[in-house]
Design a protein that fits this description.
Distance between the termini: 33 Å
Helix content: 25-40%
Strand content: 15-25%
Largest sheet: 8 strands, mixed
Strand order of the largest sheet: 3-2-1-4-5-8-6-7
Number of domains: 1
CATH architecture: 3-Layer(aba) Sandwich
Length: 253
């Protein structure tokens, strides 16, 4: 059943203009050459990071085809399901939530075409907290930089992680370099993203993100950079946190 946004949900964790912006291009989620091309290029690296961090945290053998078997994973701001579908193929029971109805409709249609079962919901994370739901892993990738109040949002995300569970996130650092590459370069010069996709002032520094995760109750915070190589179109993990970076945090027992 489609859920409407909770009347008690605070507006500081959702920007209606952001939801509308992504709703307008919902039909393009699975076009590797369309407006979500950067995510398609980034996806293999994101999935490798997600798999490896989950396997490391839960001490799972990652060389099997279904290393995430038996785990409940929540993808907050799941979009069209670019992460949900492969995580499902790796054996996880996946729930994907997004407040944009058109986006979830596109995600459901694609999963059905692929013969995959993903629990997609038109919802906000606050509603899952209110329902008392818990997950082994909570994922929020490329979402934080679109949220007005990052600490409030991360607290909600953390509330959905079961004890001894894991949260994985990615976002953009607020640097001159990120403004030049992620906004001027990606949106205005290369036209990889629709103009207005990002607001630089909402980018989050690694120190700010780490503190927000600690304040939310997470421990063992680790951050890893993601770097784009334009000559071959590949992404790699490393120590450069100047633009794109990932973070993980564990929930204490």
């Amino acid at each position: 059943m489609t859920q409407s946004p909770s009347k008690n949900a605070p507006d500081n964790t959702l920007d209606p203009e952001e939801i509308e912006r992504f709703s307008r291009i919902a039909d393009e989620w699975w076009d590797p050459l369309g407006k979500f091309r950067p995510l398609h290029q980034l996806n293999p690296l994101r999935l490798t990071y997600i798999r490896d961090e989950i396997c490391r945290h839960f001490q799972i053998e990652k060389r099997t085809n279904t290393p995430l078997d038996g785990l409940k994973i929540l993808d907050i701001g799941c979009g069209g399901g670019l992460l949900c579908e492969p995580m499902t193929r790796m054996g996880a029971t996946v729930t994907g939530v997004d407040p944009a109805e058109r986006t979830i409709k596109a995600a459901r249609a694609h999963a059905k075409d692929m013969g995959l079962i993903v629990d997609y919901r038109v919802s906000r994370a606050e509603e899952l907290v209110e329902a008392g739901e818990l997950f082994d892993v909570v994922v929020n990738m490329e979402v934080i930089e679109h949220v007005p109040d990052v600490p409030a949002f991360l607290q909600i995300c953390t509330d959905l992680v079961r004890p001894k569970g894991l949260m994985l996130a990615s976002t953009l650092n607020r640097t001159v370099k990120s403004y030049g590459l992620a906004i001027i370069g990606a949106e205005y010069i290369m036209r990889w993203l629709p103009t207005g996709t990002h607001q630089w002032e909402r980018f989050v520094t690694p120190d700010e993100l780490k503190q927000a995760m600690l304040d939310a109750g997470l421990i063992d915070i680790e951050q890893t950079g993601m770097s784009y190589h334009p000559l071959n179109g590949n992404w790699t993990l490393g120590q450069d946190l100047d633009v794109n970076y990932l973070a993980r945090g564990a929930k204490p027992s």
